[in-house]
Amino acid sequence: MISSLISLLVLCSAILGIYASELTFELPDNGKECFYEEIKANTTATLEFQVVTGGQYDVDVTLLDSRQNVLYKQQKMQFDSHTFTAQHTGVYSVCFSNEFSTFSHKLVYMDFQVGEEEPLPGVGEHVTALTQMETSTVDTHKYLNLIIDLQTHHRLREAQSQKRAEDLNERVLIWSILETVSVIIIAASQTFMLKSFFSEKRPVGR
Amino acid sequence: MLRTTCIHLIGLFVLVDIASALYFHIAETERKCFIEEIPDETNVIVNYKVQLYDPRTGGFMPSSPGIGMHVDIRDPDDKTILSRVYSSEGKISFTSHTPGEHVICMYSNSSAWFGGSQLRVHLDIQVGEHAINYGEVVQKEKLSELQLRIRQLLDQVEQITKEQNYQRYRENRFRQTSESTNSRVLWWSVTQTAVLIAMGAWQMRHLKRFFEAKKLV
Lengths: 206, 217
Fold this sequence. Notes:
heterodimer, A: alpha+beta, Jelly Rolls, 4-stranded antiparallel β-sheet, elongated, B: about 40% helix, Emp24-like (chain A), GOLD_dom_sf (chain A), transmembrane (chain A), signal (chain A), membrane (chain A)
């Protein structure tokens, strides 16, 4: 009984597979971060990423399939999206590398969608065609998903700009302080140097 | 039929098997943090499972009951929302109260006992309407298929509204930063001009007096 229950559970979790993994993580300088996921053959998966903050907002990305073949490899990308269909069942890996950067650590957003969205429980069991009402809900759901997706992108873009604006603000402050201090130092030193030129010659001249 | 049975089962078992989720590797003492930027009043569910590297088989143990995980969740004001030690497998849920970046950190409580081997962490973070378990909703509220579909749409719209509100809050913050930069540039140019004129005048006066005192002019 228990074993059949467990096998059923395993089967269930396979059926109600997890749809998307969205993660935002920090990538230290010279760091490398890898994520793995098991994908079944003929499943379509989409990888999306965006560098939120840090350095030149770029990162190296490598996507490997279960046999270590390179499916996607980009260097110094700010953001991108890649869709692929798994050829064989196995563990696929995504690696984000910041190894080219020696001092800027980065914040990277990643969205790894595998397979279709799981349907609502109890929905889609019957074989009859959908009513007009149901079709509209399906369409609305699709569009709302799109809106949420676009909102996420907008939010990330905004986060990027916000960080840049804050940096600019800080730099303006530091630069203006330095500039003011240097103007005062230069003016004072100019005057005293000029004075010293005339002061030194006097005992010789007279 | 199978699916309905599944839903009932999943509804019964709180711990959903997350073996199909994304995983990564960390060293035993390593600390791993993830950032979730979310609006306020948003539900977040974190599912995780930790497996210890088994040097005998060269793989990972299917379950590692000896390992505990510290989970540390901080809100945007750097206040701790949650800081506890959980077992090697767990489900944590929390609701945000302030909008912004929530940091979720995990690290194992193991010391030198296992000699710094590798840990495999399966992790799944669901936010907002993704965190809603519709299996439970169906059971609790006895909704028809159409009602359930509409219910999902409603949850989505609610999440979108929250996100929009958060977007307004962020826009407001952005504007403050930009205005601050703007006023700093303005004040800097005014101050700089004043400093330049003052220094120029001081140089002139000072040198003039100096030359007069030395009888050079």
